[in-house]
Amino acid sequence: MIRPSSEDDLAEIIRTAAAPLRVCGGGTRPVARAPAGEGLSVAGLTGIVLYEPQTLTLVVRAGTPLAEVEGTLAAEGQRLPFEPPDWRGLLGVDGESTIGGVVAANASGPRRVQAGAARDSVIGVRFVDGTGLVVKSGGRTMKNVTGYDLVKLMAGSRGTLGVLTEVSLKLLPAAGAVATLVVAADDPGAAVSVMQSALSSPHDVTGAAWLPGTGVLVRVEGLAASVAYRSEKLALRLDAIGVERDPGRNVTLWQDVASVRPLQGRSGDLWRFSLRPSEAPRVAARLGADVVLDWGGGLLWTVLPAGKDARALARPYAGHATLMRADRPTPHAVFEPEPPAVAALTRGLRARFDPRAILNRGLMD
To answer: Considering only CA atoms, which of 112, 103, 204, 195 is closest in space to residue 154?
Structure first.
């Protein structure tokens, strides 16, 4: 494993590389098929470059552990808006998550329904492209620029366009109070109906998920008086069977959602669907397996017997499915095949930023 200690070292390694490189952060968010090549870890590029609590901005090197970032923010009463999920138990891996890995995977937790995805909180990046060139885009304030929106392109590109070395993030104040409503729902159809009712209400819901055996969970956060009022109104609207107000218990509930705890430890192939919420019940019925729903039904997780093609079972659907973990080598594409026009754009971008195709070659094909 190559482990550069600076951006200059990383640029030189990529510039002189004669073979493909397998880029990784903490190794906590793999997908079912790893790219070939020698390992290249950015875990040595650590440290907070700039933190301005008064302006809710953070600039941090990509290899900095996520736990260190979250601890620093918590000490100032702040947080990352997008609630990065911990998938180690789900994917059966160890390691320590890095902030660069979070951004590269666009890893977004339950709060996505209110605060947006990880890419929506990234306001600047530095990275080394496939030629060894150091590229900087954006900064501490959001700017509209002509040409490529490199900040958005890098979030979710999983190291195929360049290796992140630094990210700039906008932050949010931590919530003063939280309440989670529990609503009975025996199946995905009933669950989506409840979640959409909650999300269409004026009560600023920050989480809407369904765990089989638990029911629908609906979260509101903010000032204590506001949370009390909104949770009371929502409880009546949704016919809630309970309201959890204990801060520690709320943390555990939403960690269970973000980490997809009900599906942890199950054998088989792990699939992740991003869908229109209205389609989630039909897709779940076609799959014929246990599912976990998040994002109001827009995110569906399931485990199928090894080798089963979840996409074929689920069709038709508008969205995309990712094979996150496979019990054995599989013929199925890890990522949803792109329509021809989009695939042509993707090839053009990779040719521009990684003309030698040495960064995570084949990972997203």
So the answer is: 103
Q: Name, in order, each residue with C-beta under 8 angstroms of 17's C-beta and a sequence gap of 6 or more.
A: 358
Q: What is the pLDDT of residue 199?
A: 98
Judge contact between 154 and 258, C-beta under 8 A. no
Q: In the numeric block, which tokens belong to residue 272?
A: 């992740």
Q: Which of 73, 52, 67, 77 is nearest to 102 (CA)?
A: 67
pLDDT digits (tens, 9 = 90+) for 107-136: 999 999 999 999 999 999 999 999 999 999
Q: Where are the domains of the chain?
A: 7-173, 177-258
What is the dotted CATH code of the domain comprising 7-173? 3.30.465.10
Q: How far apart are CA 167 and CA 98, in angstroms?
A: 11
| CA 100/CA 102 separation, integer angstroms | 5
Question: At 251, which helix (H) or strand (E)?
Answer: helix 247-258
Q: Residue 144's pLDDT is what?
A: 40
**Residue 59: beta bridge partners?**
50, 168
Cα–Cα distances in Å, from 132 out to 11, 157, 203? 5, 17, 48
CATH no., domain 177-258: 3.30.70.920
CB of 350 closer than 8 Å to CB of 160: yes
3-state secondary structure of 361: coil
Q: How far apart are CA 135 and CA 125, in angstroms?
A: 8
Q: How far apart are CA 90 and CA 259, in angstroms?
A: 7
Report the relative pairing of strands 38-41 and 21-24 from DSSP bridges.
Answer: parallel
Bridge-based pairing of strands 215-222 and 78-79 is: unpaired
Q: Is the peptide bond before 20 cis (omega within 30 degrees of 0)?
A: no
- Give the residue from 112, 115, 136 showing the smallest Cα distance to 124: 136
Residue type, 72: T
